[in-house]
Amino acid sequence: MARNRVQPVITFAVPVVLLGLLGYLDYGYSKVFCYDQLYVKKNRRACAIGFIVEFNLLLGEALLLWIITALKGPGKLNQQLKPFDLGPYIQRGQTVYANDKASFPTTSKLERIPDMFLCNSEGFPFWCSECKTLKIRRSHHVKSLGRCVPRFDHKCMFLGVVIGENNLLCFFGAVFYFWLFFLFGFITITVFASSIRDYTSASGMKIIEPNIIACYIGDIFWLLMMTFMFFGQISLFMDNDTSIDVLHRRRRSRERKMNRTVEPDFVNVAHPTLEDVRVIVELRERDRVFDKGYRSNIQSIFKTDTWKALFYPSLGSGAEEPSIESGESDLIAEEEHLYSQKFQQTIQKRIENGDGRIMGS
Ligand SMILES: [Zn+2]
Description:
alpha+beta, 2 domains, four-stranded antiparallel sheet, two-stranded antiparallel sheet, 9 helices, 12 strands, about 50% helix, about 10% strand, elongated, palmitate, membrane, Palmitoyltrfase_DHHC, acyltransferase, EC 2.3.1.225
């Protein structure tokens, strides 16, 4: 209960504090560093004006992308997908297991299900009981929003925004501009640091004005954070990974190292040779289910015009959502398309080598 009450306060407070810090940084940089030091004392007028304009343009773009990230939202599942009818496959698995060829059901018209989907140890796909749908499109249920978010990435503590398929690129744009902003502040202050020591400290030493020092330290801290986030996000794009997937894997590997029993992940796949038979295969630590190679991964993120959102942000351009009219077979085809070919082939090979368990056995 306490957590439920505290959570919204944190969600709100952290971005507000961050905005306050940014305001102070802007004051320290634009007013104290650029205007007082460069413009007035050093008479470097063009330089001071140029710095102020550039610094504030970068900040403005970053804030604009922050707002757009929040306004666009992480996206939602427009369609529900009802559970797959796995009964006939379980039955067939049982007869295969019993090696009872006589009672093999003759080819009945089965409902189409994906050739591959992530599942629990029993072979059943993941279901959201609140949204009443299979968790398609790599979605996760986000409690604070009360809905499933496709390609859920993480909840950004600093921006106070849930990041998913729909606003991922705008979020990346915001990170990119914040990174540039702190980098610009860092470089310009560093260049002039030695020539602006004209503040007399209590001990009589000549130092840089304390506001500038405070801003400089803050700038370096955030520059490191943003560098980490910016390159971290690029690495996620290259692997077609999400933050939550990475965290999930890290937790697993930590638990393994501590010799705890870890419930593995599974995929449910069509048997390579037996018709209408499904196999449940346990995933290995190094398996990357969605990794289609970095070229393809990057292309899928920057598909259509979405990359333009980084430079010409508008509310209209975002990750494409399939239209609400698309039927169940389209949804299933879309699901299948998520999994990498290479991974599918790896799994088929493993099954041929005796890995996996026939569903129903
Ligand atoms: Zn849900």
